[in-house]
Structures are given as structure tokens and as C-alpha cells.
Write a structure and sequence with these properties.
Number of strands: 6
Distance between the termini: 69 Å
Order of helices and strands: HEHEHEEEHE
Structural class: alpha/beta
CATH topology of one domain: Ribosomal Protein L15, Chain: K, domain 2
Strand order of the largest sheet: 1-3-5
CATH class of one domain: Alpha Beta
Shape: elongated
Strand content: 5-15%
Radius of gyration: 32 Å
CATH architecture of one domain: Ribosomal Protein L15, Chain: K, domain 2
């Protein structure tokens, strides 16, 4: 026996076509006359007009602003940490300087526009060039 000789044991079952007369009656579950009883294009959802009024943003799904990045300034770090202490996202969460985003620890970015005098050890954070220069100038390290 070969593949082209194989045949199914059961008979093919025809699918039921709704809305074309037949066994379900003359209206076939569509009711009597009117827009909904006709074939072809259906009615537009009522929310469509509201959606069309809103301005659209460029880009796929318009992810313009990163929500999961917590931004913190060097001044806050110098106010809340002692000299030669470690700074990482977990410690920042514990101190209440950043919040969880959707139940997760966010990515932390440190920005610097003020001077800092304390030696801080920064781990697991993104950091701007100016902030990195200021921390290293004060004697701290960035890992």
C-alpha cells in the first residue's frame, strides 16, 4: 500500500452555511429586513468616530516615552547616602527614592547637573556622561 492509495474511514461532513436560506428558515437567524439582514459590509462600531478624533503618534504602538526607567539626580544621592556607600536599584527602592513599575524594579538612570562631594560606589545603574565624570571626580566609582 502506498500513500496515494490511502482513503479516510469516515465520510466528509459538510459545514453549515448560515444566512442563505435552507434548513434554518427563510431569514436564517438574521431577523427580517434591514441593514443587519443584508449580506456584505456590516455596521461600523459606534466607538470608531471617537477613535478617529484622537491625534495619532508616530511609531509602532507609539512607545515614545520609556515608562520603566526611573530617573534620579546626583543631588538626591548625595543628600540620602553616606560617604563611600553602595548605590544600586534595590537600595534605592528600600530608601523610597524610586518606585516599582508594574511590580518590577525599574531600570535606574542617574543624571548629573549639580556637584557632588561624597564618594559613592554605583552598581547596576545607567549613568549619563556628566554624572559619571562628577562621581569619579569626587573619588567614587561606577561599575
Amino acid at each position: 500500500m502506498q500513500i496515494h492509495q490511502l482513503k479516510p474511514i469516515h465520510k466528509k461532513r459538510k459545514r453549515k452555511r448560515v444566512g442563505r436560506g435552507g434548513k434554518k428558515g427563510t431569514y436564517s437567524g438574521r431577523g427580517m429586513k434591514g441593514q443587519r439582514a443584508r449580506a456584505g459590509r456590516k455596521m461600523q462600531p459606534s466607538i470608531r468616530e471617537l477613535i478617529k478624533k484622537f491625534p495619532k503618534l508616530k511609531g509602532y504602538r507609539s512607545k515614545r516615552f520609556a515608562k520603566d526607567i526611573a530617573i534620579i539626580d546626583i543631588k538626591k544621592l548625595s543628600d540620602n547616602f553616606e560617604d563611600s556607600s553602595i548605590v544600586n536599584p534595590k537600595i534605592l527602592l528600600d530608601k523610597g527614592l524610586i518606585r516599582r513599575v508594574e511590580g518590577k524594579t525599574p531600570v535606574v538612570k542617574i543624571l548629573g547637573n549639580k556637584e557632588i562631594s561624597k564618594k559613592l560606589i554605583i552598581e547596576g545603574c545607567k549613568i549619563s556622561k556628566t554624572a559619571k565624570a562628577m562621581i569619579e571626580k569626587a573619588g567614587g566609582t561606577v561599575k
